[in-house]
Amino acid sequence: MTTFFPMNGGDGPYSFSKNSQLQREVLDGAKGMVRDAIIQKLDIKIMLSSSNTIRIADFGCSVGPNTFIAMQHVVQALKDKLLQVTNSTNNIPEFQIFFNDHVINDFNTLFRSLPIDRSYYAFGVPGTFHGRLFPSRSIHFAHSSCAIHWLSKIPKELLDEKSPAWNRGSIHYIGTSNVEVVNAYVAQFEKDMEMLLNARAEEIVEGGMMVLVTPFASYTRLMNFFGSSLMDLVNEGTLDESLVDSFNLPMYFPSPEDMTKVVEKNGCFSIERMELTYPKSKLVEEADAKTLMINLRAVLEGLIINHFGSKIAEEACARTILKSEEISTWIKANYEKSCQLFVALKRK
Amino acid sequence: MTTFFPMNGGDGPYSFSKNSQLQREVLDGAKGMVRDAIIQKLDIKIMLSSSNTIRIADFGCSVGPNTFIAMQHVVQALKDKLLQVTNSTNNIPEFQIFFNDHVINDFNTLFRSLPIDRSYYAFGVPGTFHGRLFPSRSIHFAHSSCAIHWLSKIPKELLDEKSPAWNRGSIHYIGTSNVEVVNAYVAQFEKDMEMLLNARAEEIVEGGMMVLVTPFASYTRLMNFFGSSLMDLVNEGTLDESLVDSFNLPMYFPSPEDMTKVVEKNGCFSIERMELTYPKSKLVEEADAKTLMINLRAVLEGLIINHFGSKIAEEACARTILKSEEISTWIKANYEKSCQLFVALKRK
Ligand SMILES: Nc1ncnc2c1ncn2[C@@H]1O[C@H](CSCC[C@H](N)C(=O)O)[C@@H](O)[C@H]1O
Ligand SMILES: Nc1ncnc2c1ncn2[C@@H]1O[C@H](CSCC[C@H](N)C(=O)O)[C@@H](O)[C@H]1O
């Protein structure tokens, strides 16, 4: 399972563009910290000494609208900062925004929904953010929200029935008691982040910054409700258990310790801020299980169909929606756990 | 009719990606001249004094594969030139290639067919080339093949039944005897090119170059066979004549004089080379009318369906294919007219 499955494209009822409120909340939860990073930490004068263009990249942008909101916010903070630093409105630099996602992302939808009144030049950048995407020293500000927790692949131990990391009856490392499974996920995350940080270290200018936002608990545990719907189908005899055992969601939600470890190992970035936050969530507060699950469907459908076929995928999605009551109860009980991780790095 | 209709996307039987041999021949016909422009005229040392990245843009790239062939050729010529100038293989600069087309172009297909072994960073740039797309002074080499003859819109005189420029019984300016029609097309072309040159003058660095390749006669007159199929339908009473009268292809094929005029009016570029050439054409030589018409269909289908609906569009396409004999005869007789225009400009 090395191939990647994109968020649902287009703008239909199960599309990501119509069902990304969850990611929107995560983004909103980090807004203030993104602004602070720019206003308080970014060496904008150094950056502008060599060129009058500011280059910003959003890694894992999907199809919008969140990426447009995020980038507008970044541009506004940069403009405010410039005003403070230069004390003049002349000579405002030009902004270039690079929207990155996998080659198979639906860039057509992304491009067609670009804001008309944007104050930046817009570019699409197809390719994995685990590798190089830009020339050396060309990016001033890098942003990524709800994306770096996607692993590049499922570690092969998880696919081997004879390995101690065979993930029986579960679709993720969260909720299993098998420490081998957890270790395999952690190791893959570390490898992926090593690649990501190496690439960004080349691409980001000295004094430039990168902010990374990842959902932590809220969103993640919800996925297990999908898992339990799949197990229901196994128990009813409609689905072969080995198919569930061999299915593993390619996501790892890093802790502050995980992040510190990979950043320090890379050595090119200083950690300017690292924080677990517990922003208010309307979706969680209202225990709106249905919206939450449809959001998850927009994210996972491609993956699930690939592994189980569309009939089982449809059935598992439908059954999970039927668990709304149970999910709502769970959400209420686990409210305080719905946190997210914010990291601001500066290129040394 | 201000909205634009893209080349057929995807990779189906009538897609542009499968049916662009005509444009490929035009491209191939200009290859030597593109290389000469780079080797003989480009001030590459000046360009690299400020940065180690060379930025290249292809305007009106469509979905490939021609754009990939063109860009590979440009990169190769630049590498060869660098080798001559610097006499060393160290410190090869990085290449950034920007693929531009209308927002509604099928960028998904473009991105999915990017060459795996490319030696450049690839970007998509959605938007019209009649306006700004890049920051000031950021492009070193601009390329456009078979694209700038597309007008941004049909001049409104052509849409007014009472105007002397009402284009009765014809779908283009080529072949009409109505000079008002021709003038309206010329005026629109001049307006569009003024916008294009103004934008590029801001974006291209001093000493940077732009090469423009346009098909001239070969391709263009073929479109009139479509026109006559439409008139057949009118004569049979299946189609209302006013629908044909009000349909005008938004393309103008500039002469060297047209190009000289707009470039001189703009004033920011020197004309390094301007040439009408008569490259050998396999399609024309073999009088392969069917391939030619299917190529044209890949280009025009969207436009025609929008105006006439898909039933008439299908019928007119099918009938034009039936004219293969007639088209072949015409092609043979007009072989010497199948020329194309090459222009190389340098930013002063
Ligand atoms: N290795 C990788 N390279 C580039 N994009 C990736 C990636 N792994 C995952 N992604 C992308 O990350 C996105 C996560 S969805 C989040 C989208 C957006 N940032 C928002 O907050 O709404 C998906 O579109 C997915 O395709
Ligand atoms: N104003 C404009 N801005 C950007 N692209 C344009 C344009 N007008 C036309 N085009 C694009 O120009 C392309 C012409 S087809 C030629 C494609 C390619 N250069 C080749 O040689 O094969 C189409 O994809 C069309 O969408």
From TrEMBL, chains A, B:
UniProt signal peptide: none
GO MF entries: metal ion binding; methyltransferase activity
UniProt keywords (A-Z) are: Magnesium, Metal-binding, Methyltransferase, Transferase
InterPro entries linked: MeTrfase_7 (IPR005299), MeTrfase_capping (IPR042086), SAM-dependent_MTases_sf (IPR029063)
Pfam families cross-referenced by the UniProt entry: Methyltransf_7 (PF03492)
Q: Name one GO biological process term.
A: methylation
What SUPFAM superfamilies is this protein classified in?
S-adenosyl-L-methionine-dependent methyltransferases
Membership in a protein family: Belongs to the methyltransferase superfamily. Type-7 methyltransferase family.
Supply the name of the protein. Answer: S-adenosylmethionine-dependent methyltransferase
Q: Which organism is it from?
A: Capsicum baccatum (Peruvian pepper)
